[in-house]
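We store chain and fold; thus.
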Amino acid sequence: MDDEQLYIEVPASAVNYVNRILEGYEYLGILTTINAKRATCVVHTTKDTRPLAIEVLKSIDDVPVKILRNREEAE
């Protein structure tokens, strides 16, 4: 597992919402869409901020966020 990349899948309608949440935590991570149809994304983090990014994503109650193992699973 890459220490600086966090791969996720969310509903397509929620990508912007999840991005805004991450933007609210300055320097936590930058979200980039990998596959727009599946709404899979990568969150560019650091080794130090990755655990907090996972915690924040898992705490979003109104959007299902699936943490993926690697980029291959996200494509």
